[in-house]
Design brief:
This protein is α+β, with helices and mostly antiparallel strands and 475 residues long. Helix content is 26%, strand content 20%. The protein has 13 helices and 17 strands.
Length: 475
């Protein structure tokens, strides 16, 4: 085990005072995560580690869920570079007849169909329906792509159709990415797995990525929580481009690294193509990637029990934001893949801990994945005296001092505040946040600033929300 992952395991294991939880695997299992497979990209080099209570390892395959979408998106941009089509091309001219007939069947929305471009599909602004796909537990009753797009036969989702006009709104659409899959197959005259192998997996060395498992493959199975296995090992996902990729965290970081290198003209895509792919369209969405000024990434979740997240740092446009930009680590990122329906909090704790231990900026919280989960408790035990400047009442919350230590709570119930394993937020003038975990709970208080004014953010991990508490002053 590397020194870094040894320290990560030490941090996880020491985040609780429960004597029954002795190891990092015990803590994660109790937190709803049977396996956390982790990869870290630092200065272009990838290291990996697996914390598992069910025998998984770093070569074990997981479903990438919706991270399948930007993986397919990189293939689409490769095809753009190769001249198969442009992102500004209308899709009607690029699709097979059976898909054209499906999307043009309602004359009321034919004008909308005629206006949809490849970029609309890739930015979820085509106005198309079907946000996600639950998959199929029985391999003998899996519909074809055409059947599921029509919502017929064995399909468990509705027919894909227009629910808005192109360009009007961000409407997350796995159906739209499945249309992109059909478009790429038609343009290349290749099956989707074959074109992905040729244009993405082989060039990037993604040797543990596929869409169909071989017999006896080292693949994980799904859990409801850290202990209870799901009735089905996993679900089959015929919509390969939207949700069907099997892979490892290491391979996903090879994808992220390939896009990062493309931004400097030394990657799988032309520099201008990579910049176009990571240019914000609306909200935080670019072309299949979510973006902000310090990086790009995507989350994923497949039924019944896969949760995953990919984050890659990159110096991207501010898009009108006036917030100071932190120092952005070069060629760095992280991926966590889990096999449990309840693993989301543990996954985010690990992501925060990785960035904290690496002294990287706080994790980009993209639209659609702005999940404010409380972090692990830090290994640090000391406090800077500056926390005392926030002593007082913040709404119904009280921050106070007890035996020299910070405490906080409501209605006189005060719990210890402990340093949190999360990167501090940097503000103007060299100021940064003090992040304190309400020990034993899923809540964190971020003591920060709004200009020169002190503020307190309450991160409610159980709800995934962040609330700015109002300071109360007394005459």
């Amino acid at each position: 085990m590397s020194k870094f992952f040894n320290k990560l395991e030490q941090l996880v294991a020491s985040s609780t005072d429960d004597p029954h939880l002795e190891s990092a695997a015990d803590v994660l299992q109790d937190a709803g995560c049977s396996t956390a497979s982790i990869a870290v990209l630092d200065n272009g080099e990838i290291i990996s580690h697996c914390i598992s209570s069910c025998g998984d390892d770093t070569d074990t395959l997981f479903q990438a869920c919706s991270i399948s979408k930007p993986t397919a998106g990189v293939a689409a941009m490769r095809l753009v570079d190769l001249g198969f089509f442009s992102v500004e091309d209308c899709i009607r001219d690029l699709l097979p007849n059976e898909i054209v007939k499906l999307l043009a069947r309602d004359p009321r929305t034919e004008a909308a169909f005629n206006a949809v471009t490849v970029a609309h599909l890739m930015s979820h602004t085509a106005g198309l329906s079907v946000p996600s796909f639950p998959g199929y537990s029985d391999a003998n009753h899996v519909p074809t792509v055409n059947q599921l797009l029509q919502g017929r036969e064995n399909s468990n989702t509705m027919r894909i159709q227009f629910c808005s006009v192109p360009g009007a709104d961000f409407i997350y659409s796995g159906g739209g990415i499945t249309i992109l899959q059909c478009l790429m197959e038609h343009a290349t005259k290749m099956s989707f797995p074959a074109l992905m192998q040729k244009h993405v997996f082989e060039p990037l060395g993604m040797t543990r990525s596929c869409y169909t498992l071989k017999a006896g493959e080292n693949a994980t199975r799904c859990f409801w929580n850290g202990y209870k296995e799901c009735e089905a090992q996993w679900h089959y996902q015929p919509e390969s481009g939207a949700a069907g990729l099997w892979t490892t965290p290491t391979d996903l970081l090879k994808l992220g690294r390939g896009v990062q290198k493309s931004l400097t003209g030394d990657g799988i895509l032309r520099k201008a193509t990579a910049e176009r792919m990571l240019t914000r369209v609306t909200k935080d969405i670019a072309l299949t990637w979510f973006v902000n000024s310090i990086g790009f990434g995507h989350s994923g979740g497949n039924f019944p029990g896969f949760r995953c997240q990919l984050i890659a740092y990159a110096d991207l446009p501010q898009n009108g934001s006036s917030e100071p930009k932190p120092q952005i680590p070069q060629d760095c990122g992280m991926t966590v893949m889990t096999n449990s329906a309840s693993a989301n909090p543990a996954m985010w704790k690990l992501l925060h801990a990785i960035s904290y231990l690496k002294s990287w900026p706080e994790i980009p919280l993209f639209f659609m994945a702005a999940d404010y989960k409380a972090p692990f408790r830090s290994l640090e035990t000391g406090y800077a005296d500056s926390w005392k400047e926030w002593i007082g009442w913040w709404g119904k919350w009280q921050i106070a001092e007890c035996s020299g230590m910070p405490v906080a709570g409501v209605d006189g119930v005060l719990l210890n505040l402990r340093p949190a394993a999360i990167p501090a937020r940097h503000y103007g003038g060299g100021q940064q946040s003090i992040d304190l975990l309400l020990d034993g709970t899923e809540q964190m208080l971020r003591l920060g600033f709004d200009g020169v004014k002190r503020i307190v953010e309450l991160w409610n991990g159980s709800m995934g929300t962040c609330e700015t508490l109002k300071a109360i002053t007394y005459a």
